Amino acid sequence: MIAFAVKRVLAAIAALSFASFSLATGAFAQDYPKRPVTMIVPFAAGGTSDVIARAVAEQMGIALGQTIVIENVAGAGGSTALARASRAEPDGYTIAIGNAGTNAATYTIYPKLPFTPDSFVPIAMVAKTFGIVALRKDFPAKDLKEFIAYAKANPGKINLGHAGVGSSNYLICKSFVTAAGIDATLVGYRGAAPALTDAVGSQIDGVCDAAASVSQSINEKLVKGLVVGSTVRLATLPELPTSAEAGLPEFEAQGWNGLFAPKGTPPAVIAKLNAAARTAVETDAVKKRFADLSTVAPDAGEHTPELLQQLVTRDVEKYRKMLADDAK
């Protein structure tokens, strides 16, 4: 009888504690946010993730009634930033933008990371991107066929820049050289912007990048577009052939960008952030910015945390197979 009574008391205490916790987190979420929110970008300013993050953050801040401050944390293909995000207080005041590179491929490339996919809670997918391979403007090849022929005649001598091993740009490079069957040197940078700068200056032969950050340079003829890994041509680059049109249909480079919070962030806070993200990508300002960058907002029904989680789970397995040889 005594043991039974003790169990009942313990159960009552547990129920009371849970109720108190629920009330506390509910009240916290109701008042959230009371101060600016930090959005960690895993790469240097000016790259694809940074450009998308800034466009979305501005409108999310308006929806939340608080400023969202961008913090660029470059290094190790985005894993430096994700490590910082995973250690942040799970209170909704630190979130991160990521992609298939930072939040999926990185677990194969860097198997000893201090975080796992379970270290984060998905908030929402905010953009769909398209990968492009662009060359320095004086590269001796006018199209993909000539480029592949040149690369095969000069194995290992072509340098293609990307935003760091594990980044989405690195995945574009890997997919491209694998599909093309060429031997090229992949040069990692601390972000897409410095890689593009070196391609513009002819310090490297080309870059693997997303349309969001390389389109303007192609249109200004600072570099020359080679191919886009998409099934349709991009409105901002109507003369750039798709991979199928260029004779390499195996090259596919369509990616995503999503927002994540540290594990333990209250569901009610995630719901507020999700609602703000949905509102942001549906604004005319973001739609116009995305259109200028050949980036696409998620379709109706693609904003849910559940869908983003499915993308992460799918891509973790996908790149575990593709990048097994790159594990460090």
- Tell me the domain tally: 2
Helix content: 40-55%
Would you tell me which CATH topology of the largest domain applies? D-Maltodextrin-Binding Protein, domain 2
Annotation, overall tally of beta strands: 9
For the record, what is the CATH homologous superfamily label of the largest domain? Bordetella uptake gene, domain 1
Signal peptide: 1-29
Organism: Bradyrhizobium shewense
InterPro entries: BUG, Bug_dom1
Keywords: Receptor, Signal
What does this structure look like?
Belongs to the UPF0065 (bug) family. This is Tripartite-type tricarboxylate transporter, receptor component TctC. It comes from Bradyrhizobium shewense. Pfam families: TctC. The protein is built from 11 helices and 9 strands. With 328 residues, it is α/β, with parallel strands linked by helices. Strands 1, 2, 3, 4, 5, 6, 7, 8 and 9 form a 9-stranded mixed sheet that branches. Strand 1 (37-41), helix 2 (48-64) and strand 2 (68-72) form a beta-alpha-beta unit. The chain is globular, with a radius of gyration of 22 Å. Residues 18-24 have low confidence and may be disordered.
